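Lab notebook, bench 4. The sequencing result for the construct came back, and we need a structural model before the next group meeting so we can plan mutations. Quick request posted to the team channel:

Model the 3D structure of this chain.
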Amino acid sequence: MTAAFGNSPEVKTRIEKIENICGRDIGNGIEPLVEAAKGGLLGAARSIAEHPYPHVAIITGFFIPHGTPPAAENDGPIGCAHLAAGLLRVGIPVRLVTDPLCLNAVKVAARAAGIPAQVPFDVVPVDAGSAEDPSVSSIVNSWQSAEPPVSHVISIERAGPSYDDGTVRNINGDDITAYTAPLHFLFTLSEIISIGIGDLGNELGMGTLSQELIAKTIKHGERIACYIPCHHPIVCGVSNWGAMGLLTAIALLRPDLKSKLTEGLTLETDKQILTTLVNEGAAIDGDTGLQALTIETLPWEYHGKVLTEILETAGLTKSV
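Done. Here's the predicted structure in token form:
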């Protein structure tokens, strides 16, 4: 693949505007983190758009043990489904990566987005002890032996180990390590470009930002800040937005593939994924912990407006 207009000032400006839309604060006070990660969206999009043989592994799934019911968060799987579906439409191979507790939700979201059943899933058990664990090493081997080999790993709203003591912590600083498989072993492989999408600082890839910045910016930041870095961090108000923004940015860099990449990025599809995910995947709002058609307390209509802004900024016209 070769980016057709990677150096176009107009394309850069559009992607910067999309990054600003995705970085809108919904009440967590993330503006300093968004500023520190500026340029991450363009860098991430270029790394895929300009790669001759991209093969993308997407990590997602954030289990909420104290939810009603205990379930995967709906922020993450939706963005993963949009991004994977778009890449697959232009022939870029994709693998989906999660753990057993979030597997059903990720599968349901993928199916709702029209992703073929044969797309591979890599699942790491919660008790995997190290990168040498057979469950991890077998996945690494499959990534390396694939044709083409995996070139990129993208994490979308996936909690990672903290600077504080290596435990994985949620927004309240609670230890959720026992419910979170160590997918960071797959996120830090050499020779694979890593992209981290997060909205708080406790997610994989946010270690690119300083612990001090997260500590003084985010409530419980000193305890929850993830130390796992990435090549291209993307900080956004809602992680799903970052995934949709990334797909749109790639489309801007590849006008020859633009229509196919964004064909399914519609309001209708987005609402369908959320509805199906809640009804069949039992996913919950990560903020309220409830099974409802909200993401981070915000109704779907709010997210639909953000998606509309992203599409309009990219020069795309989509309708319900």
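The mean pLDDT is 95.
Will bring this to the meeting.
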